[in-house]
Amino acid sequence: MAGRKTLLLVGATSDIGRAVASRYAREGWAIVLTARDPSAARRDTDDLSVRTGEPVAVLPLDVLALDTLAAFVDALPVLPDTVVCVVGELGDQNRAEADPEHAARVMATNYLGPSLLLGILADRFAARGHGTIVGVSSVAGDRGRGSNYVYGSAKAGFTAFLSGLRNRLARGPVRVVTVKPGFVRTRMTQALSLPPLLTAEPAEVGAAIYAAAERGRADVVYVRPVWRLVMAIIRAIPEPIFKRLRL
Amino acid sequence: MTDRPRDIAGPLGTLSGWGRYPRAESRILRAEAPDRLPGLVAAGTDYVARGNGRAYGDAAIGLHQTVLMRRLDRFRGFDPDSGRLTVEAGVLLADILDVVVPRGFFPFVVPGTRLVTVGGMIAADVHGKNHHREGGFGDHLDALTLLLPDGRPLRCSREDNPELFTATVGGMGLTGLIVDATFRLRPIESGWIRQETEVATNLSGLVAALDRSAEATYCVAWIDCQSRGGHLGRGLVFRGEHASAAECAGLAPPRAAGRAAVPVPVDMPSWTLNPLTVGAFNALYHRRGAAAARRPAYVPWRQYFFPLDGLSDWNRLYGRRGFVQHQCVIPPGSAQPVLAEILERVARLGSASPLAVLKRLGPGSGLLSFPMDGYTLALDLPANAAALALLDEIDRLVVPAGGRLYLAKDSRQTRATFEAGYPGLGEFRRLRHAIGAERRLTSHLSARLGV
Hints:
The structure holds 2 protein chains of 2 kinds. In chain A, strands 3-2-1-4-5-6-9 form a 7-stranded parallel sheet, sandwiched between helices. Chain A is of the alpha/beta class. Helix content of chain A is 46%, strand content 16%. Chain B is of the alpha+beta class. Chain B folds into 2 domains: 75-188, 2-Layer Sandwich (Uridine Diphospho-n-acetylenolpyruvylglucosamine Reductase, domain 3); 192-415, Alpha-Beta Plaits, CATH 3.30.70. Chain B contains 14 helices and 20 strands. Chain B has helices spanning 6-9, 37-41, 93-100, 118-123, 131-134, 162-168, 203-212, 275-292, 301-305, 335-349, 385-398, 415-421, 425-434, 444-449, and strands spanning 12-16, 23-30, 47-50, 65-68, 75-79, 84-88, 105-107, 141-147, 153-157, 177-187, 192-200, 218-223, 235-242, 262-263, 297-300, 311-312, 323-330, 357-361, 374-382, 404-405. In chain B, the strands form 4 sheets. In chain B, strands 15-11-13-12-18-19-17-20 form an 8-stranded antiparallel sheet. In chain B, a hairpin with a 6-residue loop joins strand 1 and strand 2. Chain B starts with 5 loop residues before the first helix and ends with a helix.
């Protein structure tokens, strides 16, 4: 179909990823997914293709294999109009404190892989003359807290990377959008008890991402606006007090 | 109770049905993927599947463990030539409708809410406003995968394992976990329903109007529960047909996404639905229906089939104490006098439901399916002592008339009422014994009724 736009969705088999894909598909976009193991993602890709009424392409990609990222982008059948990266891993804070390997994996999954991949795509978009980059980061990156600072620090790095990328490209045609979903009811968070007013459904995140990337002009999006206020307060607490809080 | 490892027993949660009465504790297990189900229930005891929690009573609360099925929410395949759809059992009807209506298809049978899972629709063998013509959801089901209590997935259809297929349709989840299902959809030309309304001034007029409507695709009657004497059983009969593309060419397409449901944000005080507010609601509804009676109206499918879905959490209107639904079916021979007696007693109680619905049913297809040839009356009442006593009285009218109660709405019938109404029960118990379901698959409902 001529003039049809293409979404590249990185990390498609998460609950948020599925919601993003459904949202874009409903607007008529062609969807290209990535998965570490495409055959294991079959259940999700079948689901998406029945829901959207057409086949969904899946490309193998492991964002932790940093030296393969450029080759992956080179091999894309079509350079997408928008890329949304929802890769993330909450990990286990207690384990991360004792097990550097686990901590390094959480850091790489939330920061290194997504940042490097989006950086490569940003350059290709700039060379082509258009494109939108959406990175799903986290409110956990707004300030390090004792209960999840390994994850939070990686997200802080990702947020800073996106901010810098946006600053570098601001005078050009490429947009960079940072999305901070807040709490989302997903597989990743099902063990936690979450406050309902602060907790979004995956479909809400999908809708917010589409709206911000394709309709709006916002640079940093909190899916539930109340989070902007919550995090402003949390950031404003002076460190001598903050360090004593149990957060 | 003995201590079990946490990952097998699951964290403790308090569950209730949509009526919010009764509440019970159960260990929560979560189905993540079909291939992980056998491991999940390998050591399971007294468990039952739970879909979207829309059964009103205690059908989807496991006596010991409850398996949440909503994450089995993947579509598997759709063949537009045959209209056959295959989905995992936790897929919501709402998602199916969003996918298939724009492509010109509609399920043969939909219940009064679209916020139910496919597994739940099969387990309750739900009926719609067309049971007299199309039967229940199970009549359009080709096949399903059932995870037996021993952890074995088994394909069931009218050809393969037909006894288990027939027992699982309407079997309230008591034969195994329904993993996925294949069922047929009907082609439609538009998302509009052409609705005709007929006013009936009393019960015999209402029943006669229902009988006259046997040829209609959809038919449902609404009864004003406040009316007594000569107006006892007055109401409206709504007939509906899928509108053709030609006749609704001039109409704007029904909104694709639909308005978001308006939530009922807090538990309303228990007096919100008192006789005065219900009476005012009913009078308004009646006048509007009478005005609309002269000409057909075109109604978008959402509004026609799922009016209450526009008000999310509407169960909170009844306050914290919750409410009980009561739905019985009475065979045709004795229906009218029994219905009159029920309505008279409901009117006398005074706190009647805003929703009394009368429909015609045909024969059921599952071993424990609710539908049978007759008239079905649905009431909802606040869960208080007077209302519960009234429902016991109503049951004593239903049983001698050869009727039965809908298990998906039940939270309080007695074993005797249940056993009298469901002649397939002996065969159902025999099958459960044969597959080793006793002590493995047990809901609060099945324990209460001795299934």
